[in-house]
């Protein structure tokens, strides 16, 4: 039984999800959670691309213990030196050197001959080995590359000192059997391949990233590169939680194990969704809202009699509970703190606990039963909070079948309280117009999503928005039992993030792979 290494690239490939921008504090928070989750390697960023990426990798290398911390670099001296510099504080650091393997990439993107790519690879891997004995090498677009060139290229990288060779399906083109055959062939034909780790890196353009990753494991790969919730460039990467639970649930098929603490999967998924502003679809395997919900009478009858009638894994295994009542409006601060600890939030500071307790009391006034899911959602909002330049003081709106929706909003800033009224196509639109009048910040709404936390007519509504403003892209979230108020809070979250500079310039990031 082999140990399959889980290489998490949420902070690098995952951050290449359109519209996603994480600040350093958020990256550290996620990296610490990835360490609790038990991933083997965290790809923390691509240090040459920006000062922000450099600092995030450096701080993760310094502050996060457990996993190997990895930094990405092209086959260029400056990239490798910058990656090595960022990794200096790490207990164990890996440099991930990449180039391309396909004719399409060589001709149109790199504008280099095969010999030039080979030469740059050897030089770069050698240089990386001067800084660490843990060097990974990847050639993008392997599934559309010529086999003979891949064998030469990876053989040269191993000879130069690479200890992991990663075979990316960069454009999500491979089919499971084909990709497995590629891994098997490379393993058999690359000189020295039996002495290094073979890694998979699959994108989900045809919805096959997880299937391809598993097929590669079946063919001898011992490392899987993946992201939490499958986020990433275009259609995303292989989803970590799906790969892990497939290996875990079907050990009889794969015969391998990972060191992932599966009880941390749900919390990690929620944190990443919250911080990146990418909602998890309800039908998403393992972590979606409906993954353990049984709707039809026959199914419900079955699971009441025996869970295994319709469940192949238990919700608890992945860190989900039934959303049972945990607290009510009469619960005190001590009980609240204990509940937070039981839910795995033992590391919150006193200020955060005070803010959460207040939010909990406000919620308990509006909602008869406060569930563990509600408390998790409150914690997610609190831990993602940036300095509050703007505070929402009041929202009022009127709308109906035969009237123009109108809203009044009061917002507090350092300089006082401001109130504006506006009309709109609906109550949310009216609220957003009023907020725009007060803040004078030009904002274009690009995506708006709403989900219910738990069920019932008093369930919390969670609104997430993605906006662009003067060439910057940012997301915001808001929680309330009133969905219009949750929408207003999401917008105010955006205003605060823009004020705090937590936004990505549209088109920012240099030469991302
Ligand atoms: O998709 C890809 O090829 C990559 C490489 C940098 C590994 O992300
Ligand atoms: Zn990728």
In short:
The protein is built from 17 helices and 17 strands. With 513 residues, the chain is of the alpha/beta class. It binds 3-methyl-2-oxobutanoic acid and zinc ion.
Structural features, described:
- It is a single chain.
- By secondary structure, the chain is α/β, with parallel strands linked by helices.
- It has three domains: 5-276, Alpha-Beta Barrel (TIM Barrel); 295-381, no CATH class; 391-509, Alpha-isopropylmalate synthase LeuA, regulatory domain (Double Stranded RNA Binding Domain), CATH 3.30.160.
- Helices cover 40% and strands 22% of the residues.
- It is built from 17 helices and 17 strands.
- The chain has helices spanning 24-37, 51-63, 77-87, 103-110, 114-129, 147-160, 176-189, 209-218, 240-249, 251-254, 265-276, 297-305, 333-342, 350-366, 372-383, 427-439, 483-500; strands spanning 5-8, 41-45, 68-74, 93-100, 135-140, 164-169, 197-202, 223-226, 325-327, 370-371, 391-400, 403-413, 416-423, 444-453, 460-469, 472-480, 504-505.
- It has an eight-stranded parallel barrel with strand order 1-2-3-4-5-6-7-8, surrounded by nine helices. A four-stranded antiparallel beta sheet has the order 14-15-16-17. The chain has a three-stranded antiparallel beta sheet with strand order 11-12-13.
- Strand 1, helix 1 and strand 2 (41-45) form a beta-alpha-beta unit.
- Helix 7 runs parallel beside helix 8.
- The protein is globular.
- The model has no long low-confidence stretch (mean pLDDT 91).
